[in-house]
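Hey, quick one: can you model this chain's 3D structure?
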Amino acid sequence: MRGKESGERTMVIPSCVFAAILVFFIFENIQGDASIWASRRASQVRTPVMITYMGNNIERGDTELETQAVASTFKRALAKIQDASSTKPNVPSTSRHTTILSTQAEQLPHTILLIRGYKLEGNRIMERVARFARSCAKASPPIEVWLCLDTSEQKGQAKIAAAYFQHVRVSNVHIHELNADDLTNRFPMLKEAQAGGAPGWADRPAPFGFHTEAIIHWYMHALKSSPQYKAIWVFEADVEYSGDSIVDILYDPTYADDKVDFVTKLCEPKSNPWMHSNAVSKNYDKYMAESERYLSVEPAQMFSRRFMVELQKRLLQGMHVWSEQAGCSFALKAGLKYIPFKEEHMGNPFTYFEAHQFRQPADFEPYRINAHQKNRLYHPVKI
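Sure thing. Here's the predicted structure for all 383 residues.
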């Protein structure tokens, strides 16, 4: 009996061990499956990428269902914007920038195109911005496009522009909005220069004649002075190009030279008398000798990052001047390299004056076809 009992016990002990091993194995597999499931779920539920659309923070979904939900949200946001633009045209006076369908995690490009304006004048201006933006998106590397709007006199334009770009599915345009108060608050001594403007001009909002301050305001607020931008092109909204792609100008090897800091039509010594000769602040008057003051037509210009840093420094020191005098004078005074546009890139007209022959869209079409008028910049083109 004792031997049999002993034998039975020798059989029971291995069975218990086996059962324990089996339970442990099952538990580990269940735990492993749970871990795998949790890992897969974690890969699906990522930290959301925020998209800012006219003040609405929207999460971009990673799954098809989430993406459909985001699309629905955008439709509601667009309807909200269109309704607001028709019933509530006023926008906040504080400056802000709005990123249209752009994630915060985007890698900053080397070159940027900033289009500035104060009056959109219908869809033609925005159609041009959209066309430039599509070309810039195809560039290598891509060129980021910004629209800087002065809303001092016409409010609600940022909302209208945002709705338009959403409607035509242009996703790489960013909007920066400012007004006269934004500039005078940021640059308190600007009012000194503004008071010296020509009769009929001095009482206009500051962004109307002091474009350099508007550009640096955008630079300080929207770009945070990012060192990854090496070149910034600035176009007025009524600049047109008669070629196939504006990138041909923006990435022309002559202008893309790292040693070039400023591109403009031409720097010429300031004439005396000039209608805006007195539109200078006291600090600018002390800093810039009369013989160092130059003028340039400014509908299209390029600024290197070095030059943007220099301009920011001088403006924060209270040096303000009517914008046609600012670019050339500051660049040459600082010893920065300036080059004029190539002759083959300058169209006719490319001037200050409002008088021009483009009254209907069809008026400009021959300029896209004729060999001696093609691939040139024109200003002003209001259609």
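One thing worth noting: The first strand starts at residue 49 and ends at 53.
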